[in-house]
Write a structure and sequence with these properties.
168 residues, alpha/beta, two-stranded parallel sheet
């Protein structure tokens, strides 16, 4: 979600993100209050020397800081940099989850039909249970997002729910 919204399809994604951001912000706050493991995983946009604070600064300087500010990671939040669509691909996420004894992941963010879908599949093949609150994910193409959520539910046994009903 640390995104400068300066790419192709950014406007479509931002429109959807505008609805998801307040919902994600409430889930983040719930996770903090309930002392649930919270791990940010964000694209590095090809900059392998980037950090959470640098990515945050770039996103805040972008076209839609209003979509970034409510979700900024705090100093103590775990932060993983990813290079591709999946949060698991070539990252230490699996190790972090396993060492914490986590058996289920709740995926929020963008884009439903890309990063969320691929992350859900990678979580599933690693034997993590997957939950996706449909109102806490943003998309570029609504019809593809709907199909992605259906695939996650049918093929990966993901629990598709709302943020309010989501168990953390």
């Amino acid at each position: 979600m640390l995104n400068a919204y300066a790419h192709e399809d950014a406007d479509k994604l931002a429109d959807s993100a505008a609805r998801a951001v307040p919902v994600i912000a409430r889930l983040i706050e719930r996770a903090r209050q309930e002392d649930v493991l919270l791990i940010y995983v964000n694209d590095n946009y090809g900059d392998w020397n980037s950090s959470a604070s640098e990515l945050s600064d770039r996103a805040m300087a972008g076209r839609r800081p209003d979509l970034v500010e409510p979700l900024l990671p705090r100093e103590r939040d775990s932060f993983v940099i990813k290079a591709r669509h999946s949060t698991f691909y070539a990252t230490p996420l699996e190790y972090l989850l396993e060492t914490a004894g986590t058996g289920r992941v709740v995926l929020t963010g963008q884009a439903t039909e890309q990063c969320i879908l691929y992350s859900a599949l990678d979580a599933y093949v690693r034997h993590f249970r997957v939950t996706v609150p449909r109102d806490a994910v943003a998309h570029i193409h609504p019809h593809l997002a709907d199909s992605a959520l259906e695939m996650m539910e049918r093929n990966m046994r993901a629990e598709i729910t709302t943020a309010e009903e989501c168990r953390l």
